[in-house]
């Protein structure tokens, strides 16, 4: 058995572009948003795998594909070596217990008319694991573990009666009730107060230890990713441009886009050099993206080949496990 929990192979998701009536008359050709355009990666048991990049790069879609909330256009997702597409509805239903999600907006993902405790324990009922007093007991225990205290009082509160940090703790508790192996956390701290962000990240790391979880941690913020991830993939317009351990990617970034993103991370030291802005230039449209490297219109090192051939993700020479998709590195 490998220690890969998830293997993603050649994964693509194209969304058809809605056209107006006039546009349909002018062109027959259906256009697609290449939200995810062929990505490969693994998530190992118990690790935090980060997916980072600017907004619109396809991170959320990748997370939703893994959870099978959307169907892939192409490619496959293996869970412990089993192709999710091959599962029957009943098998997929059981598989869902092992993969849970924490989304960005706790308000949108909580039913406003359901009491906090009932919402946290809802999956226990749905999957026939526990109900009544037993459900309440398990929920109270989980609420204590995620710091929703006093649990017996907060159990009966409605989402709008909780603080932002408490709501996000409730979402985390809900995700863990069925003891999943993987939690897809999509910008889990983006909408909470800055003062509670570090606490929530600490909590997520603690819970990972306690429950032996793996996270797919999605963020646009490399400073947050640095705090929590073991390995990280950098996405740009539907493709992974660099991937490796946190150490490899942060200490020795190879792709010009990764270098630019890291240079733009604010440093909490007033004497440190100022952060650099991201390179200007046109961000190509994810609708029928141009040939060649997706980053070439913004890249300070672009050469002719970069606008013609798509670079593939390949090992960085002399740095095992570190991959980059850049002609500059692999020219020779
Ligand atoms: N349901 C959808 N229909 C059409 N386009 C979509 C849909 N979901 C996402 N997209 C497009 O796919 C691209 C990637 O989006 P997303 O995965 O949300 O990126 P990220 O999470 O990195 O910001 C964007 O251009 C977005 O507009
Ligand atoms: Mg997103």
How would you describe this protein?
The chain has 332 residues and is α/β, with parallel strands linked by helices. It has a domain at 4-98 and 212-330: Rossmann fold. The chain is 32% helix and 21% strand. It contains 12 helices and 12 strands. The protein has helices at residues 21-26, 59-66, 89-96, 116-126, 132-145, 151-154, 164-176, 194-211, 222-228, 246-251, 256-263, 327-330; strands at residues 4-16, 32-44, 48-52, 74-79, 82-83, 99-102, 182-186, 214-219, 231-236, 239-245, 314-315, 323-324. The strands form 2 sheets. It has an 8-stranded mixed beta sheet with strand order 6-7-8-3-9-10-12-11, with helices on both faces. Strands 2-1-4-5 form a 4-stranded antiparallel beta sheet, with helices on one face. Helix 4 packs across helix 5, helix 5 (132-145) crosses helix 7 and helix 7 (164-176) runs parallel beside helix 8. The protein is globular and about 70 Å long. The chain starts with a strand and ends with a helix. The model has no long low-confidence stretch (mean pLDDT 91). Bound molecules: adenosine-5'-diphosphate (ADP) and magnesium ion (MG).
């Amino acid at each position: 058995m490998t220690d890969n929990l998830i293997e993603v192979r050649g994964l693509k998701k194209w969304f058809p572009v809605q056209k107006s009536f006039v546009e349909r008359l002018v062109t027959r050709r259906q256009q697609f948003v290449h939200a995810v355009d062929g990505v490969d990666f693994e998530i190992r048991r118990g690790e935090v795998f980060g997916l980072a990049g600017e907004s619109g790069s396809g991170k959320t879609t990748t997370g939703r594909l893994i959870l099978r909330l959307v169907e892939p256009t192409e490619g496959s997702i293996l869970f412990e070596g089993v192709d999710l597409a091959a599962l029957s509805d009943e098998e997929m239903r059981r598989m869902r217990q092992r993969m849970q999600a924490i989304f960005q907006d706790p308000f949108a993902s909580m039913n406003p008319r359901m009491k906090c405790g009932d919402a946290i324990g809802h999956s226990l009922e749905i999957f026939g694991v526990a109900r009544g007093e037993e459900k309440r007991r398990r929920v109270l225990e989980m609420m204590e573990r995620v710091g929703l205290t006093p649990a017996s009082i907060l159990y009966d509160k409605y989402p709008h009666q909780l603080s932002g940090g408490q709501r996000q703790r409730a979402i985390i508790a809900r995700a863990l009730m069925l003891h999943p192996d993987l939690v897809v956390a999509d910008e889990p701290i983006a909408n909470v107060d800055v003062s509670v962000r570090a606490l929530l990240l600490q909590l997520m790391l603690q819970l990972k230890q306690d429950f032996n979880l793996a996270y797919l941690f999605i963020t646009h913020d490399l400073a947050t990713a640095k705090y929590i991830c073991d390995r990280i993939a950098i996405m740009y317009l539907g493709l992974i441009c660099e991937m490796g351990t946190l150490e490899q990617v942060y200490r020795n970034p190879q792709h010009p886009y990764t270098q630019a993103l890291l240079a733009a991370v604010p440093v909490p030291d007033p004497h440190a050099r100022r952060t650099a802005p991201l390179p200007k230039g046109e961000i190509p449209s994810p609708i029928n993206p141009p040939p060649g490297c997706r980053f070439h219109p913004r890249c300070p090192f672009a050469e002719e080949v970069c606008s013609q051939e798509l670079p593939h993700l390949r090992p960085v020479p002399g740095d095992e496990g570190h991959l980059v998709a850049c002609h500059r590195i692999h020219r020779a």
